[in-house]
């Protein structure tokens, strides 16, 4: 019998009415004759007296105990959804991470799913029950409870889908799929019917919050299809290895990120400039560097520029000042009020003219490109914050993302 | 190494200050060089948004899911206490019921502990950790979470003590031990240094809320000593098989229960009177009957009187009316405004004059005895509600429970 895994969104748990609606939606899926496994995220309704008490008790509570407390949220959510489904006359059962056979390991600061023993879930499916799994949690080999952190519920859904050889995984979100750009900003942004894992990864890393990259990466490895849609609509976006339709569309989406800061560090001579040192020092201080541009021009002192998030700015300046002697740079400069706009599409690999077309269009729009970064399926530019929306709309238009829907 | 199990009271979890106090108290016990296992009850602080949502979702939620939700309370409480202990520089770890190896079974409507696999707890004790177990929960053989209901945390503490061959079990309560009567009502009521399991069982069933009878019964079977005390004082009451001291004290305590109702059912002839029928009918409708008195006097129509709790009154009348034809009685009558006062003491078995002395004293106090019930170690009388406090004080005085402390 065909199984599907549905990861519901936290909005679907934001009130009793919403819980009843999502229960009905899940029952509809069951009525189509499939085995249904549902993965629930944390409920904001339950956040959170617990942490208030924790903070009063300790300024440095142990991670192990925080995992134990954190895990109760999705545990309660899974039971509430099971109760709502049962109320409508259907069989349902909640399973915590450990009950569902989800094995996890701690790796440095993150928690990963190492294995899923799917027997318990399969047993329950065989009884005709809808299985509701508390997302983002499991146990290590010593039966300690661990929670997965950001993107944990998405990742749990994909991992269960892989373990149970599910037909596909549905990720319910507030939007009805993946868009060529943010519809709130770009006129004519439209929903993609299909997109590849790699394109989705680029979009996810570029700020699209619909599916967590961890989950997309896992789905890519096991080649299991993901469907992203809202819980209330039939349409959505299919994420898979190769996209059949729309192949001719070179650029698949436009993404952007606001509030970027460019830092520039200059050296007196080439001998002093050690890029490795500067970026390892920043990384050791948890400062994420995105785009890096090194200018080495004859007769000009060498400089390196890089972009960071606004939140990391103060810390980055502090780290640079502190380590100035070792890092050997002679000056540091910064520019605020920038943003990043990117175009993404698997077809770009075989279309070398795409970047040039992008720069050309931006020039026509009188938008100054401050930095550039490219990958096989992506081109990102840093432009003034004030031009961000204009740039996104122009690129969306340039690559025919609007017209495509009319065809 | 000697182990002790401490079951803390819910008052100790009623604020962060209280949690910090109880953490210190537990650490003191650890400092004495013992292995310490703590069993926590539910926290009232966390009660309870969850049930509000459940009630909105379903008027008849499944018991299985209610267990799942209920279990999160003590799970969180155990983590919070572990965090508070760690904050003070001591090693501690929380364990849920299933992590602690607590196996439970469902038996009709109640959940019982069937076995404890103590390995996990022992492993942790060997590491020098204080082990905090979420009370009143375990898992069945299919790993479903079950919660134990009333007295569950007390019972968990005793069961763990038995499994780990603990030296004794400490039950922390609001009071500093077991009293000869309720100090709020009886002048001169005093704390007993020791009491037998059977005496404690009678007192518990008669309304003393310090230790749950389930826990006392289990301790009695395995002959493991219980110490009842407040978390802030050294003194307490030792509950064990045979009491060494105070043996000469025939009556060990006075208990009472307010708001009793006496129902009387009369028959036209002996042929029609079937006691078994009437009490099985009441039992089938979940009405607890306490004292039963049957009057069969020559020349007088047979009657049977029994006492019930005020809450069951309306239901009892309804059940009797509905089943009147089958039960064959000719009239039913009732008396409200009654109470039950009892004296308890293991020494009563070998002191046949105790009941007579009790009735004599009540007669002197002009207290009318409406019903009488006796067991080997207990005599209960039903008296007017208005005389309850007077009767309790008189009996406390009669059996020298006040003077004993002066000796």
Automatic annotation (TrEMBL), chains A, B:
Q: Which reaction does it catalyse?
A: L-aspartate + ATP = 4-phospho-L-aspartate + ADP
| Superkingdom per UniProt | Bacteria
Q: Which pathway does the record list?
A: Amino-acid biosynthesis; L-threonine biosynthesis; L-threonine from L-aspartate: step 1/5; Amino-acid biosynthesis; L-lysine biosynthesis via DAP pathway; (S)-tetrahydrodipicolinate from L-aspartate: step 1/4; Amino-acid biosynthesis; L-methionine biosynthesis via de novo pathway; L-homoserine from L-aspartate: step 1/3
| Chain ranges of the ACT domain | 343-407
Query: Under the GO molecular function aspect, what terms does this record hold?
Result: aspartate kinase activity; ATP binding
Q: Which UniProt keywords apply?
A: Amino-acid biosynthesis, ATP-binding, Diaminopimelate biosynthesis, Kinase, Lysine biosynthesis, Nucleotide-binding, Transferase
Q: What is its EC number?
A: 2.7.2.4
- Tell me the PROSITE patterns matching this sequence: ACT
Q: Name one Pfam family in it.
A: ACT_9
Sections of the chain in a coiled coil: none
Chain positions recorded as ATP binding sites? 179
Its function, per the record, reads: Catalyzes the phosphorylation of the beta-carboxyl group of aspartic acid with ATP to yield 4-phospho-L-aspartate, which is involved in the branched biosynthetic pathway leading to the biosynthesis of amino acids threonine, isoleucine and methionine.
For this chain, the family text in UniProt reads: Belongs to the aspartokinase family.
**Name the record gives this protein:** Aspartokinase
The organism's taxonomic lineage, starting at the top: Bacteria, Bacillati, Bacillota, Bacilli, Bacillales
């Amino acid at each position: 019998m065909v199984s599907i895994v549905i990861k519901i969104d936290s909005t679907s748990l934001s009130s009793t009415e919403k819980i009843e609606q999502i229960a009905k939606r899940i029952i509809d899926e069951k009525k189509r004759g499939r085995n249904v496994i549902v993965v629930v995220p944390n409920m904001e309704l339950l956040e959170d007296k617990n942490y208030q008490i924790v903070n009063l008790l300790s300024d440095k509570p142990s991670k192990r105990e925080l995992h134990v407390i954190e895990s109760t949220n999705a545990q309660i959510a899974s039971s509430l959804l099971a109760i709502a489904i049962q109320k409508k006359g259907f069989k349902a059962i909640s399973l915590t991470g450990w009950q569902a056979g989800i094995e996890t390991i701690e790796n440095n600061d993150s928690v990963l799913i190492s294995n899923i023993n799917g027997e318990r879930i399969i047993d329950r499916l065989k009884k005709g029950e809808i299985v509701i799994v508390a997302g983002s949690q499991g146990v290590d080999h010593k039966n300690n409870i661990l929670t997965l952190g950001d993107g944990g519920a998405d990742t749990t859904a994909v991992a269960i889908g892989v373990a149970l050889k599910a037909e596909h995984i549905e990720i319910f979100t507030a939007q009805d799929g993946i868009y060529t750009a943010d519809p709130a900003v770009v006129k004519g942004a439209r929903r993609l019917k299909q997109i590849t894992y790699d394109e989705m990864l680029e979009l996810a890393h570029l700020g699209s919050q619909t599916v967590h990259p961890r989950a997309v990466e896992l789905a890519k490895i096991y080649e299991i299809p993901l469907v992203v849609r809202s819980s209330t609509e039939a349409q959505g976006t299919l994420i898979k290895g190769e996209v059949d339709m729309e192949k001719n569309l070179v650029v698949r989406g436009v993404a952007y990120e606001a509030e970027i800061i460019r830092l520039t560090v200059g050296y007196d001579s080439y001998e002093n400039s050690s890029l490795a040192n500067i970026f390892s020092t920043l990384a050791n201080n948890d400062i994420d560097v995105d785009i890096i541009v090194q200018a080495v021009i004859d007769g000009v002192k060498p400089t390196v520029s890089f972009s960071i998030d606004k939140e990391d700015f103060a810390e980055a300046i502090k780290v640079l000042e502190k380590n100035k002697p070792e890092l050997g740079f002679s000056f540091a400069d910064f520019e605020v009020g920038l943003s990043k706009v990117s175009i993404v599409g698997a077809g770009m690999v075989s279309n070398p003219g795409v970047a040039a077309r992008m720069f050309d269009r931006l020039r026509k729009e009188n938008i100054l490109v401050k930095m550039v970064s490219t990958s096989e399926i992506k081109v990102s530019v840093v432009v003034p914050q004030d031009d961000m929306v204009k740039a996104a709309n122009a690129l969306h238009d340039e690559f025919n993302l609007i017209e495509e829907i009319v065809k």
